[in-house]
Amino acid sequence: MAELDRSYLARRLYGAEADGTFDRARIRAVVTDGALGAGRTLLERYPNVEMVGVFGVGTDAIDLGYARERGIAVSNTPDVLTDDVADLALLLMMSVARRQITADRFVRDGNWGRAGLPLASRFSGKKVGILGLGRVGRAVAERCEAFGCRIGHVTPSARDGSYLRYPSLIEMARDVDFLVVTAAGGAGTGGMVDAGVLEALGPEGALINVSRGSIVEESALVSALDSGRLGAAGLDVFADEPTVPAELLGMENVVLSPHRASATVETRQAMGRLLLDNLAAHFSGRALLTPVA
Ligand code: 8YV
User: Fold this and answer.
1) Does residue 12 have an active-site annotation?
2) What is the mean pLDDT of residues 64-86?
3) ipTM of the complex
4) Which of 241, 252, 266, 273 is catalytic?
5) CATH number of 82-256
């Protein structure tokens, strides 16, 4: 299933409007995704929109306040993608620890038998700190427990006693080997992982982000990795996708991924089905299956 070509869709959508072959008043629902979103500017163009269906769990790119003002229902696709996102977080942690991308290229470049590779690090038994113990964060924790890792978290509202809860992000960063970002994006978490947190994570630490690039101060991340103040990173999301800071492209201690955490056939089909089921529910007068509060 091809990834959504967002620029093509935008050109077709606004292009059609420009030549008058598109009656905005007839639009009753907007389908978007967790990255493209639906802000006030877009929703204002469609006076009769009743619903926004998000193909994804993140709603930070949806103007929920304006949707509420307009009485526009919003649905997303939680749960069906939780396992895939947590799996990718584990894949990034292990790839970073074992330097697997470097090892792969070492063999492909024909260097095996001609040169040596530095030793990697063990993943099992490491200390993992989770920023945001929600559905995905909990799934990451359960996976890490199977590898004998010690789990901690920082979560504003969690009352869960299952794992060590740190009083602050910087205290957790000081104490763990991996800091995994699974918190929801949006105004409440923007820039939470700043230079101080990255410094606290330190030269032996690694940042893993499978949520939103906005949660990390990306310039501070690049600087910390470049200077060695931070040991490594595994990143599936970035501040200004699809643009990735050029400095990261040359770093051996960084594993990069193009916002693919939910991009498996099974999950994307399940997300699509859930999105369509929400649309069908709305237009048949039933409650949404997965409404966004
Ligand atoms: C994207 C995501 O929505 O679920 C989210 O919030 O970020 C992703 O699943 C997905 O890649 C569709 O573009």
Assistant:
1) no
2) 98
3) 0.94
4) 241
5) 3.40.50.720
